[in-house]
Design brief:
This protein has 677 residues and is an alpha/beta fold. 18% of the residues lie in helices and 26% in strands. A hairpin with a 5-residue loop joins β16 (386-388) and β17 (394-397). α5 runs parallel beside α10 (432-449), α6 packs parallel to α7 and α10 (432-449) runs parallel beside α12. The longest helix has 18 residues, at 432-449. It starts with a strand and ends with a strand. 44% of the residues are buried.
């Protein structure tokens, strides 16, 4: 039965979601601090008026602790006559980075710590053990800030899925070093055997899908997805070699292909770099393999003017025309073009970088979250500003934006895995090359939940769940040039998850859309549109099984070139039946039947339970290899490598919420929340 939904806004009651409490930096976090000895050094604190101050004689400790808000520091078990137990102290602080910093700066005093906070970590987030210095749990990986992952809410997505090895992210780039620990899972297209990895390709691959929870390096967005890499050849990617490798990536199973390069034609007006065969190959792979293409929009300023950002020949004739600039392959059809948005790094300052103290740099850099241009107080659109370091490299710059940009992702001061592994202490970099793999990794997570999503559906979901930064006053000069807004990985993955649940509620909220064509017809239950304006040239075609609800504040007012069509259809039963990615004949001939991965799904019941969980794989030709159980803080507390009749006994665990990570013999992995009653 089909029902057409009225366009009139409806007032719906407030929805209450379980586990909705968000973590606040003002919350008090509690830790066990393990001292190296019983000398008392580093434990001299006095608590008065709800604040603990270091009162010892060590000037370095005094200066260090003065920068943090500490609520209490005391010996945990003074009454127990055991020398090791008496080394344990309790630290209470509002700063989640303090325990890591204590170990990092004063390892001779502080040996280890454990997070015993109640409610400090959101119950709907998951952090791998190598997340970085912004992790609210212990970080066993690189001493690197991953504000980029915080900024896109990656931990929210990981609570739902950390990816699936059957989902393959293609890296079309310079070569990837798969000898490095976080990238050993990287395979290469048929006929390609790289001699060694390069900085650019390795960093792009790591940002998209570097291994996580292995106590090493850091983590990619889709860290349980596989990687298939190809080389673009020497120089700029402009040859038939590069294009043939795009086809090979798609033909050999890549679900999404990341292209952090341009085709050699440079920056020019729309159509300046267009090559018909490139568009044809992208169309062919999209139509025949369902491949999703993602490309970097470019790293130069977006406008060519007579006086700035322009080149001339000897006769003073402009080499490039004036106006908005484009780059390819990002500007092709069937390619998601990725620009950049600024994330905020308040803990970093100019002393950490090449140019020493710089008040202009600091004043701009520390206040640019959600901005497209570093000049946040009124940019002349024809003269975008860039700040150059002494070496000529732009520390903060407005990367290329134009009407064909689809989405923005962070790209400034991102972790460079290649530099880290090769001992370079400066392991942060940026540019749209590093923004694009954040999108590719997000798509990997989305496809891990529903590999049947088409390229257009994936793009729709990423845009519908993005943050609307375009309508912020500081970005007003870039209206129409920065896509739908800022990537929200957590929202996009949650949206896919809710779309396919029979009791799901997918939510689109807090956005104004005045262009784009949205079409989604796979809602297995309900869709809620909250405080959203679909106006002007927007077209909307949504279909849900049960209901489409509109809140007050939602406006449906399309112009002459737009329309709104909302329908329910009780016959919707859209369950994705995953299949193996398309494979080349050569690859199939070289694989035995037992080598072929068959994607499966898992059923865990009863949940909640008091004692026994039953685990059932719903796919074929696969078996459970091991089960890991994590507490809600992400600490591994148990691992089982052999299950009798696929039964797991958790009767000995305390009541609470746990995360179950199941690994199968075909290298699938599933992460599910369980509740012990």
């Amino acid at each position: 039965m089909n029902n057409h939904i009225s366009i009139k806004p409806l007032i719906v009651s407030m929805l209450l979601f379980l586990f909705s409490n968000a973590y606040s930096q003002n919350d008090i976090n509690t830790y066990y601090i393990y001292m190296s000895d019983n000398s008392g050094n580093g434990t001299e604190f006095k608590t008065e008026n709800d604040k603990a101050n270091y009162i010892g004689n060590n000037q370095e400790l005094k200066t260090f602790f003065a920068a943090y808000e500490i609520k209490d520091f005391y010996q945990a078990f003074a009454e127990i006559p055991d020398t090791e137990i008496q080394k344990v102290f309790v630290l209470k602080t509002t700063d989640i980075t303090l325990p890591n910093k204590m170990l990092e700066n004063f390892s001779s005093y502080y040996k280890r710590f454990e997070d015993i906070s109640i409610g400090a970590i959101p119950l709907n987030e998951f952090y791998p053990n190598d997340y970085g210095t912004t992790s609210p749990i212990i970080n066993l990986g690189a001493n690197a800030s991953r504000k980029d992952l915080d900024y896109i809410s990656a931990p929210k997505a990981w609570f739902i899925t950390t990816g699936n090895p059957n989902i393959i992210i293609g890296i079309s780039d310079t070569s990837v070093d798969n000898a490095l620990r976080d990238l050993t899972k990287t395979d290469f297209i048929q006929g390609y055997n790289p001699i060694s990895g390069s900085r650019h390709g390795t960093n792009v691959a790591a940002l998209a899908a570097a291994d996580g929870s292995n106590q090493h390096g850091s983590v990619g967005v889709c860290y349980d997805c596989d990687i298939l890499a190809s080389d673009i050849g020497f120089g700029i990617a402009s040859s038939d070699f590069t294009l043939s490798n795009l086809y090979k990536l798609a033909n050999e199973g890549a679900h999404v292909i990341n292209m952090s390069w341009h085709n050699g034609t440079g920056y020019g007006p729309d159509g300046h770099g267009f090559r018909l065969v490139e568009q044809q190959i992208i169309n062919y792979c999209t139509e025949n393999f369902g491949t999703i293409f993602v490309a970097a929009a470019g790293n130069r300023n977006s406008f060519s003017t007579p006086d700035l950002h322009h080149t001339y020949d000897d006769s003073d004739i402009p080499l490039t025309p004036f106006g908005i600039l484009y780059v390819y392959p990002a500007s092709y059809d069937n390619v998601i073009s990725v620009g950049t948005v600024n994330a905020k790094y308040p803990e970093l300052n100019s002393d950490s970088y090449c140019c020493g103290p710089n008040s202009l740099y600091d004043s701009i850099y520390l206040n640019i979250e959600d901005s497209v241009s570093p000049n946040v107080d009124g940019t002349d659109i024809n003269n975008p500003v860039a700040i150059s370091g002494s070496n000529g490299w732009r520390l903060v710059t407005m990367n290329t934006v134009n009407p064909k940009v689809d989405i923005l992702a962070p790209s400034y001061n991102q972790f460079e895995y290649y530099n880290y592994e090769n001992g370079n202490p400066n392991y942060y970099g940026g540019g749209t090359s590093y923004a694009a793999p954040m999108i590719s990794g997000t798509i990997g997570l989305m496809l891990s939940l529903n590999s049947c999503l088409s390229s257009s559906e994936v793009k729709n979901i990423i845009q519908l769940t993005s943050k609307d930064v375009e309508h912020m006053p500081m970005n007003i000069d870039f209206f129409g040039l920065i896509g739908s807004g800022k990537l929200e990985t957590g929202n996009a993955v949650e949206f896919v998850d809710e779309m396919q649940k029979y009791d799901g509620l997918a939510v689109i909220k807090d956005h104004r859309f005045y262009r784009y064509d949205f079409s989604l017809e796979k809602f297995n239950n309900d869709l809620l549109i909250e405080n959203v304006q679909f106006v002007d040239n927007t077209t909307v075609d949504f279909k849900a099984k049960n209901s489409i609800e509109l809140t007050e504040g939602t406006t449906l007012d399309p112009g002459v070139n737009g329309y709104i069509d909302l329908n329910t259809d009780t016959t919707i039963n859209d369950v994705c039946v995953p299949t193996n990615a398309a494979r080349s004949a050569a690859a199939s001939e070289n694989e035995s039947e037992n080598d072929i991965r068959v994607e499966s799904d898992i059923l865990i019941y009863p949940n909640p339970t008091r004692d026994i969980l039953q685990l059932q794989l719903l796919g074929q030709n696969d078996e459970i290899a091991s089960v890991q159980i994590y507490n809600i803080h992400g600490h591994l507390i148990s691992e089982v490598t052999s299950l009798e009749n696929n039964s797991l006994n958790i009767s000995g665990f305390k009541k609470g919420i746990y995360l179950l990570k199941v690994h199968t013999k075909n290298k699938n992995s599933f992460t599910e929340k369980i509740i012990k009653m």
